Amino acid sequence: MPKKILHIVESAYRATIEEQDDTVLWFTHAMKGAGADVSVLLRGNAVNYAVEGQDASGLSFGARKQTQPPRLDADVAKLASKGVEVFYIAEDAQARGLQATDLIGGPKSLAKNELPGLLARFDLVFHW
Amino acid sequence: MSTKKHLAFLLMDAPYEQARTTTGLRLIDLALKKGHDVTVFCYEGAVALAFAKQAPHANAVHGRDVEQEDHPNPKDWIAALVKLAAEKGSKLTWIQCGLCVDERGVGEAVQGTVRGSPADFLKAVETADNTLVIPTQ
Known about the structure:
Chain A has helices at residues 16-19, 23-33, 72-81, 90-95, 115-119; strands at residues 4-9, 37-42, 60-61, 64-65, 86-89, 108-110, 124-127. Chain A is α/β, with parallel strands linked by helices and 128 residues long. With 137 residues, chain B is α/β, with parallel strands linked by helices. The mean pLDDT of chain B is 97. Classes of the chains: A alpha/beta (128), B alpha/beta (137).
């Protein structure tokens, strides 16, 4: 049985413009592709990754345009479509004025007091 | 009964940026000194830790020339950990995220390091007794 791994993503929008993605979401995609039993919890500012329709396009320096900006909501949705369970902390979303209707489908709301139960389901927890 | 363990680490910080890197190297050093096997996966800026072209310099503020300054660059510490593992009969597998290396142009790494991917990290995680991810912030 593969180990059950939870990635907690808290450091948000770190180098996403330079990388054209979030490096932890990308890493999770790669691990899932390699056969990992992996889930994701978005907390803190990273709950914003689930906001539908965010648009980081339009950047250019001089004549060099960024034609493939990060699409974090799509990357989260793609994880969910691959069978990766994605959670977000309800209180962190509320604190940022986010309603469930603002978010893509797929991620599951989790109250802070439900965290111990969630963490107990995993062999390894990586807090990014 | 063997007490040898296999520990996996993921480092993410670029050199000379965070104390987290030193902490990670301390833990790796201790694990090797105790004879444990260690896998290190360097992700993002941490791939520059092993960049072979790092160079020491004199330090006018300290009033020392390059020899007196005797500054171990991170690559020197990694080379020393590779040597330590061999002396202790431990296995140190130092994996550099290949795409991260390419993005940064730091393909020339010290001996004892290999190029890999997140799939290699997953393999290490699955066989390790425990894994510590030390992410950047």
